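pinging the channel bc i need a second pair of eyes. not urgent but kinda urgent?? the chain im working w is below, pasted from the shared doc
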Amino acid sequence: MMRFPHSFRWLLPALAVLLLLGGSCGPALQRHFAQGPNTHVYIVRHAEKDPAPGLADPSLTPAGRARALALQKELEQYWLSSIFSTNTIRTQATAQPLAEKLKLPVQPYDARQLAALASRIRSEYSGRAVLIVGHSNTILETVEAFDAARPVPAIGDEDYDYLLEVTLPRDSTRAATAVARRYGLPRR
């Protein structure tokens, strides 16, 4: 008897149901699956950075490194296809634990070109999940670049624990949505 990996054990019963429903539901199901799954874009600010004045590109504090690990634990289950980060030490260090766990490279992006990033994700990662690591003054703008409304009015200088999720519906006639939740230890 052929064995399926644990993650694919749902496939056989699902195929059986589709075959049984093939007659009357077939065209509707075909349209549904032809559109593909929703795209999920997770957006976070870099974790806690070194507060010493005058640092051009500060690294993460111990609390920031702990938050980066919390991000890994939070998102490792979502089958991310790609991770994007600005080209700073703190954003890359925030993404690194998850990138290592998933064996994905961290792709750089220009925070001044958010529309281009959104367009790239819509075309190259449709139906998949990605992570974008940015800054307090760019993550809400990133949500807006996907034509979704801000899920919170502002991100403060001390807000490191927001995890924003933008859902791009497979049906392009439906609007993108965004929600905010917290992850890791609460901010101090």
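so The longest helix spans residues 22-35. and DSSP finds six helices and six strands in the chain. — does that match what u expected or am i reading it wrong
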